[in-house]
Amino acid sequence: MSERASKLARVTAAVWRISLAEAIAYRVSMLMWVLTTTFPLVSLALWSGLAASGPVGDYDRPDFVAYFVAAFLLRQFTASWVVWELSGQIRTGDLNTLLMRPMSPMLYHAIQNLAALPIRCALALPIGLVVLALAGGLAWPDPGSLATVGLSLALAWLINLGVHVTIGCLAFWVTESTALFEVWLGLYLVLSGAAVPTSLYPAGLAEVIRALPFHASLGFPVELAIGRATGAAVTQGLALQVLWAAAFGALAAVLWRRGVRAYEGVGT
Amino acid sequence: MTAAMVRVEGLCKRFSVPRREAGLRAALRALVRREYRVVDAVQDLEFSLAPGERVGFLGPNGAGKTTTLKMLAGLIVPSAGRVEVAGFTPSERRPEFLRRVSLVMGQKRQLSWDLPAIDNFEFNRVVYEIDAAAYKRRLDELTTLLDVGEVMRRPVRQLSLGERMKCELVAALLHGPQVLFLDEPTIGLDVSMQLGIREFIRRYNAEHGATVILTSHYMEDVAALCPRILVIDGGRLRFDGSIEALRRQIRPLRRVSVRAAALPADPAAMGRVVLQEGGRLVLDVAPERVPEVVGALVALPEAQDLAVHDAPLEEVMRALFGREEAAELG
């Protein structure tokens, strides 16, 4: 068992090294990253403008600043681009390379995703700090237990990865799986809390939205990080995250296994 | 043959090609209701290969060569029949199986574009669990043979097609596979590079005893590399044997050419006249009449450049497949 673990560690390190080098060389995706993920900061400008004349719901201006800066940063830690990688590899046949290696292609994608984290953080942290300073929100609310936030982040990352692999695997059967992902992304922007804190939706609707995977993959960890989720809400939120991570993990695993059997290897 | 390295029985692959319009709406609709067109890419293949054999798959485009190769490599799952490679069922893709085989595709790069090849090699060392001493020995051997000592330190994207293919071969062979699958390994390469790669593969096979299975559009590759040929056409095995046997079976006539001061009065009596022009005569002659015809031609006044050839391979292929695509095989 320990031999397997040490092999896993070696392989992880090797994938990490190669992915890190690739991530540095991969300029286009970095540009995409900048364009697509500053969305919470746009929301920040909007909402802090609205809150200038008085609080919106239970959010006043500094609350919005903390919320959206946290949303921006946490999105960096949990983001993924596996869906593009995977569906591209399936369509072009580049998946062949991964399938011929004696290591799980899914593990490869997961590690590759994690390997890009340091670069994302390096780019995102200064932006977050500058915004925070400019907005005068340097007084950060009590974030609660760091361990809980960390756990919630890890779960959010898993949910995202599960969604990406699930939709990416659809490329085994459908040519335009990334178009389906665009649909998902549209819902995500509205329902995850990236544009609006989900607690500001009307009562009744808010409860439904907060039970969906979108909120579990961003809104909830953000609320944890700014100390808005406390007591029973923490346990409940974590439980929902575990549920969604397990659901998408299982779905992704089933689709992957079936997809590989349906795979046609592409190319004459 | 109990010790076969590759054993294929009743192998079939049927593709269901979805038929639908383009666009997101059609994609969503296709999730619910789909229409299929059925394509039988491979039908009832049967053969087995001994360890260390070099075998070429020959056939026109879309004949099922690459599909067969991919089933042997475990990339696609057979619809029916059995495949066994090195004692494993390829489609299960067990790590022990994957460590014993390697696939090189001339049309697909497997090395990471932005990194030097040496980084890719190092990555393979870890993933394939190659021990340090064996890695160093093989790397030295392969990089020397293929002359990529300098090249492998530059990012892959800066390499020429030929240099890249050499690096692909190094990456594919570092773990010492028992079975090497080569899909069009020399496609797009210039003649000298083709020769170099061909020579390398032959040498590697001779020294390491790996089974080599090759598909190529270049008849010359297959003819030069593979003592045994499997002709696949329309998804079926049409021939299994040596290239000479194939030639003799399809085009039994030998081509005899000569140059002389005066040509025989009735060359058509010797065989089919391919060319008669000035002092030059080219005939297709039945094998059993070759000695007699050669004797007669040598006796011509100032006879020179007398030669006896097998029919050119392209002609053999054209005759075998009997359709236009076969012309590409030349």
From TrEMBL, chain A:
The keyword Protease does not apply. The chain crosses the membrane at residues 30-52, 64-86, 107-140, 146-173, 185-204, 238-256. InterPro entries: ABC-2_transporter-like. It holds the Pfam family ABC2_membrane_6. Keywords: Membrane, Transmembrane, Transmembrane helix. This is ABC-2 family transporter protein. The keyword Nucleotide-binding does not apply. It comes from Nannocystis punicea.
